């Protein structure tokens, strides 16, 4: 066992860093001072074809923007920022190296996990899509009264998107109120599926022993889709170079691939905070619901809209819990009070676990403008009042490359917030 461990470590560590397409790329943290700075940042990309990858989009003077800049474009971008007088610093000084570190830690933690040969599923490491779906199937097989596997959508590359349905059917056979959760519509946000499958596991195993879990599964049906962007997620596992992939994998006109599926929904589509350029990381697609994944998932939500009382899309990073709207500063009259109250309760619950602060608010206020995002559609079109986007850890230190030792703490603080939402909708209908 020890010798094997040493051999494994040696073989993992001795691998010479492969040259990465992201070698010496940087992530800049930018501090826009006013609306003009924000406009400058958003247009800089489009006008000069820099294929800037905003890890965090520019929104307003109070909000930082993080942007991944390719090595070749660094002098130009830094010069432009300096000339404009926009303050910035370097958040990641070598994206290729950060990726390499992250992937090495990932391989190492998985190798150690396999060697422990614990028969329980290991939630402290990242899992491939196959491992995730195998475990969801395992739960459904072992807890058939409260868990079943379904799929309401397929992907461009022909995969099926797994959804696990949780809940004890009403004995009188009537349809139950429901709660939809999805994650990883942006494939590089690995902490999201890791957090969601932990919650599913806890819900299933604590049914019958934990009163809150029991009440929620008795009163509600939960539809949980741990990985929305399956093709993208599979792609991020291929190599260091693909780890940061965000969009789906559908080829577009021209040289570029993929649509940002959180800009592709049929609500205020293409009205800001998205791009018409297929090479852009926030490309909204050729039309609302041009993508099979968003079209089919939204169809299921639409057909069940009268029963679905809450919708949460999990993303990372930033540690914020956001209510509608994403596309404008307006607070929905009538609903904003209740949406905010539940949002505040959710972040209080999160903080009570490990003391970590998440901010409750609205996308435009706390993060940045998005249009054609899932949350706006589920609220605007499907009429789901409690529609949220929750961005998990961290606030930028590791960003999408969150090390495995933060998986369990994140999952532990998010699980009770899911219970909070479940209880709220049982109490408020
Ligand atoms: C069916 O049972 C549930 C849970 O006990 C109850 O809330 C609901 O009102 C019942 N529906 C009908 C039509 O009896
Ligand atoms: Zn995201």
UniProtKB/TrEMBL annotation:
Keywords: Carboxypeptidase, Disulfide bond, Hydrolase, Metal-binding, Metalloprotease, Protease, Secreted, Signal, Zinc. The keyword Plastid does not apply. GO terms for biological process: proteolysis. Its cofactor is Zn(2+). It is found in: Secreted. It comes from the Eukaryota. GO terms for cellular component: extracellular space. InterPro entries: M14A-like_propep, M14A_act_pep, Peptidase_M14. Pfam families: Peptidase_M14, Propep_M14. Residues 1-18 form the signal peptide. Residues 125-425 form the Peptidase M14 domain. The active site is at residue 391. One of its GO terms (molecular function) is zinc ion binding. Gene3D superfamilies: Metallocarboxypeptidase-like, Zn peptidases. The keyword Metal-binding applies. Belongs to the peptidase M14 family. Involved in the digestion of the blood meal. This is Carboxypeptidase B-like. It comes from Branchiostoma floridae.
């Amino acid at each position: 066992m020890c010798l094997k461990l040493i051999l494994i470590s040696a073989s993992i560590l001795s691998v010479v860093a492969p040259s990465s397409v992201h070698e010496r790329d940087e992530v800049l943290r930018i501090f826009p001072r006013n609306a003009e700075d924000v406009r400058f940042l958003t247009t800089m990309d489009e006008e000069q074809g820099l294929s800037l990858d905003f890890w965090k989009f520019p929104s307003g003077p109070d909000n930082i923007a993080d942007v991944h800049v390719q090595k070749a474009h660094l002098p130009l971008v830094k010069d432009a920022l300096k000339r404009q007088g926009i303050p910035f610093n370097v958040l990641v000084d070598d994206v290729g190296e950060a990726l390499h570190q992250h992937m090495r830690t990932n391989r190492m933690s998985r190798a150690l996990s396999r060697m422990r040969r614990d028969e329980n599923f290991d939630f402290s490491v990242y899992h491939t899509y196959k491992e995730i779906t195998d475990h969801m199937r395992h739960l459904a097989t072992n807890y058939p009264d409260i868990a079943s596997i379904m799929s309401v959508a397929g992907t461009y590359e022909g995969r099926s998107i797994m959804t696990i349905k949780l809940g004890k059917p009403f004995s009188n056979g009537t349809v139950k109120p429901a709660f939809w959760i999805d994650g990883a519509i942006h494939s590089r946000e690995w902490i999201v599926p890791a957090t969601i499958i932990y919650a599913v596991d806890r819900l299933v195993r604590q049914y019958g022993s934990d009163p809150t879990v029991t009440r929620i599964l008795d009163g509600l049906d939960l539809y949980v889709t741990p990985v929305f962007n399956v093709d993208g997620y599979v792609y991020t596992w291929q190599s260091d170079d693909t780890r940061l992939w965000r969009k789906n994998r559908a080829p577009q006109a021209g040289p570029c691939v993929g649509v940002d599926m959180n800009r592709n929904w049929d609500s205020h589509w293409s009205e800001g905070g998205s791009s018409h350029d297929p090479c852009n990381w926030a490309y909204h697609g050729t039309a609302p619901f041009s993508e099979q994944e968003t079209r089919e998932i939204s169809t299921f939500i639409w057909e069940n809209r009268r029963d679905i009382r809450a919708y949460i899309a999990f993303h990372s990073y930033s540690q914020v819990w956001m209510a509608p709207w994403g596309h404008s500063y307006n607070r929905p009259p009538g609903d904003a009070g209740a949406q905010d109250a539940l949002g505040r309760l959710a972040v209080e619950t999160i903080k009570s676990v490990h003391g970590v602060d998440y901010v409750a608010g609205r996308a435009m206020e706390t993060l940045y403008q998005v249009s054609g995002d899932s949350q706006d559609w589920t609220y605007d079109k499907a009429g789901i009042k409690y529609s949220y986007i929750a961005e998990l850890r961290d606030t930028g230190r590791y960003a999408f490359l969150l090390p495995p030792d933060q998986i369990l703490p994140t999952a532990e603080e998010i699980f009770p917030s899911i219970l909070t939402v479940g209880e709220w909708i049982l109490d408020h209908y």
